[in-house]
Each structure stands twice: as C-alpha cells, then as structure tokens.
C-alpha cells in the first residue's frame, strides 16, 4: 500500500478559479497539510479552509499545520543564497516526510494546496521530489489558474504582442538584465519597474482574485510612484503582499 498525495493548484484567490479537476481531488483527500508562516499569513490558510468548506461534499477531512523551518536570509542570487534555499527545502522535506508518515495511514490520501499553479514560482514539487526518496508515496499535480492569467483577465489584455514571446522573470532579474520585450514580473519586493523607461507600459495587480484586489495600469512614468505607494500601504495594512505585473516597452 502506498500513500497518495495531491498537489492541488487552487488559483490566484477567487474560489471560482478552482477547476472541476481540483474539486474532485479535494473530495478525494483525507488530510490537508499547510505551513505555518506566522500570523501575517493566517488569512492565506483561512482562504484554503474556505475553499475546502465550499467544495468538499462530505465532512471528515482535517487540516494539519506544519511549522515552517527558519530560512537564512542572505544576498539574493549569490552562492550562499542558493545554498540557503537548498537547506531550507531539505528542512521542509524532513518536516513533510515526518508528517506524512505520522498523519496518513499506509494507503491514506493527503494534499498540499498550492496558491496559483504548482508549476510557477512554487517549491512544493521540488520538496515532494525529495520526500518521495524517503517515504513511500505517489503524487499527482492538479494545475491551477495562475496570477498571470488572473492579471491579464482582470486588465482585459492579451499576454503577448502578435507573434512575440513573453518572459516570466523576477524583480531582481529585471533590474540586472533590463527589459527587452514583454515581461511578466513576479517576486518583486523593490518595485524594479521604476528602473524602466518612463514610457514603458505596466499592468499591475495585487491580491488578485480576492476582495482586497488592487489594479493599476498606465505608463511607468505616470503610475510607477502610485503603484509603489499603494504597494507599501497594502503591505503595511495586511502584513504581506502578492503582486504581479506585465511590462511592455513603448
């Protein structure tokens, strides 16, 4: 007998983004594993619980909250940074493996609910690959609506220019490499778009799909400072922020 794990993409915040495939996986799950990331992220756990309450037809499932191992904060994109991330993933894998063995029966079904889509800037799959070397499990992946899809839908824009590619990158990479074409930027804590030419078009969104959703569009010269201020205010108000934006050169 082998324990089964679902990695379920639950979309960017709106419960209506949850797919029929995800609903089936939710109803197949006995134990949902979540990470304790501190009080500031409690509302993310609450949203996961709301999704389960809405879509799971029979009671009996339960949540198991796992303590998130500490992560060393070092200079990004340095060798020390990559080691720190690898060490953090290894520590997480140990916590997950222990919980799966303890909380699931030999043929039990557990799940991790991934914000957005598990394939995009999410560590769940990398960590489970490590867990699978230590614990007898199989796992499948249910894709979800990404923040990128939610962003372009809310702004009612195509992701790409006709026949042109789109880069998905981070704020650090944007600042280091500059902008040469359309780019989606994620994980940008420092508003790297302000280094782009003022005529650069930007479509920005935060807390996409939630009641706290924020949207701004325009040129970097016209709305860049407004975005930076709104982002800072929202982060101070909520204790966290998830934002994404699309850039397109003039």
From TrEMBL:
Protein's pathway: Cofactor biosynthesis; adenosylcobalamin biosynthesis
Tetrapyrrole methylase domain boundaries: 4-223
Pfam families, alphabetized: TP_methylase
Gene Ontology BP term (one): methylation
Gene Ontology MF: a single term: precorrin-6A synthase (deacetylating) activity
UniProt keyword Methyltransferase present: yes
Record-linked Gene3D superfamilies: Cobalt-precorrin-4 Transmethylase, Domain 1 (3.40.1010.10), Methyltransferase, Cobalt-precorrin-4 Transmethylase, Domain 2 (3.30.950.10)
Ranges in a coiled coil: none
Record flagged with keyword Cytoplasm: no
Keywords linked to the UniProt accession: Cobalamin biosynthesis, Methyltransferase, S-adenosyl-L-methionine, Transferase
PANTHER family linked: COBALT-PRECORRIN-2 C(20)-METHYLTRANSFERASE (PTHR43467), PRECORRIN-6A SYNTHASE [DEACETYLATING] (PTHR43467:SF1)
NCBIfam families: CobF (TIGR02434)
The protein's name in its UniProt record: Precorrin-6A synthase (Deacetylating)
Organism phylogeny: Bacteria, Bacillati, Actinomycetota, Actinomycetes, Mycobacteriales
């Amino acid at each position: 007998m082998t324990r089964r794990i679902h990695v379920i993409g639950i979309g960017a915040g709106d419960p209506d983004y949850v797919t029929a495939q995800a609903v089936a996986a939710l109803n197949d799950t006995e134990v949902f594993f979540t990470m304790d990331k501190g009080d500031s992220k409690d509302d993310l756990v609450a949203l996961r619980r709301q999704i389960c309450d809405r879509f799971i037809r029979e009671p009996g499932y339960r949540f198991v909250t796992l303590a998130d191992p500490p992560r060393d904060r070092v200079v990004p994109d340095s060798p020390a940074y990559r080691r720190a991330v690898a060490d953090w993933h290894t520590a997480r894998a140990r916590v997950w493996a222990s919980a799966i063995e303890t909380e699931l029966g030999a043929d039990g079904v557990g799940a991790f609910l991934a914000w957005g889509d598990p394939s995009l800037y999410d560590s769940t799959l990398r960590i489970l690959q490590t867990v699978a070397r230590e614990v007898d499990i199989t796992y499948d992946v249910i894709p979800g609506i990404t923040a990128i899809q939610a962003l372009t839908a809310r702004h009612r824009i195509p992701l790409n220019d006709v026949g042109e590619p789109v880069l998905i990158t981070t704020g650090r990479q944007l600042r280091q490499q500059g902008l040469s074409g359309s780019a989606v930027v994620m994980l940008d804590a420092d508003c790297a778009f302000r280094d782009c030419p003022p005529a650069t078009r930007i479509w920005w969104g935060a807390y996409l799909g939630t009641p706290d959703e924020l949207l701004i569009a325009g040129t970097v010269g016209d709305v860049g400072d407004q975005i930076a201020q709104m982002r800072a205010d929202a982060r101070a108000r909520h204790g966290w922020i998830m934002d994404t934006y699309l850039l397109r050169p003039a």
